[in-house]
């Protein structure tokens, strides 16, 4: 089975809904890939849900490369998109191209994602010219949450909505193959989706987008610091893991684990010979 390409993603618009989830390691990527999701995002959300930071700003390019590599090894069909972390593309166009190139060449990703609209158009255009597919990201852009006044819905006023639409069209014209819309009013996201020729991938942006993305740890209940309004939790694996760990601890303390079925034996004659050696009867002088 061949890996999906940017052309496959673009051609899906208007034909079927696209599915995308995050993954940060080999076993998770393998599960997501075997479920035939279209895209896997190695998101900078890794900083919070895997590395334990308070926000997404602390992760860097080497860490993104480190986590992208096993995801690529685990995914055979899904397209792997790697996030460009905070301050890996904002300083200059050259910096953006260099770091995008590292995520592709060293990490093995098929595309990169970066946040922002008009302010990052030169970077997007240069990365695309370098032959690297780019996924845009508008609305609530976590790397700029401080500037946006926190983790709030974006584009609620007519003026802000128009600016978001203009940015979306500009990113499409700059060569993005798809666009993430995060925490955007559903009617606005639907209008953006209708206005641009590339697929929109919503996260807290309603059902009118061309696809959806969620952080896997939110979806399966492995991140309990907070649960965004836009998440549907399909499992509570954190609770199941806690029960399993507590049961393991109890079994160790009571001596019920390991049992004979978890242990390895010895031939009786070898065991008897060992006992003789330990007694010193068969020890060489």
Can you characterise this structure?
By secondary structure, the protein is an alpha/beta fold. It has one domain: Phosphoenolpyruvate-binding domains (TIM Barrel, Alpha-Beta Barrel), CATH 3.20.20. It is 42% helix and 13% strand. It contains 12 helices and 8 strands. Strands 1-2-3-4-5-6-7-8 form an 8-stranded parallel β-barrel, surrounded by 6 helices. α8 runs parallel beside α9. It starts with 5 loop residues before the first helix and ends in a 6-residue tail after the last helix. The mean pLDDT is 94.
What topology emerges from the helices and strands here?
Blueprint: H1 6-11, E1 18-22, H2 26-34, E2 39-42, H3 46-49, H4 61-74, E3 79-83, H5 93-105, E4 111-113, H6 121-129, E5 134-139, H7 145-148, H8 158-174, E6 178-182, H9 186-195, E7 200-203, E8 211-214, H10 216-219, H11 237-254, H12 268-279
Parallel strand pairs: 1-2, 1-8, 2-3, 3-4, 4-5, 5-6, 6-7, 7-8
Helix pairs in contact: 2-4, 5-6, 8-9
Summarize the structure.
This protein is an alpha/beta fold and 285 residues long. It has helices spanning 6-11, 26-34, 46-49, 61-74, 93-105, 121-129, 145-148, 158-174, 186-195, 216-219, 237-254, 268-279, and strands spanning 18-22, 39-42, 79-83, 111-113, 134-139, 178-182, 200-203, 211-214.
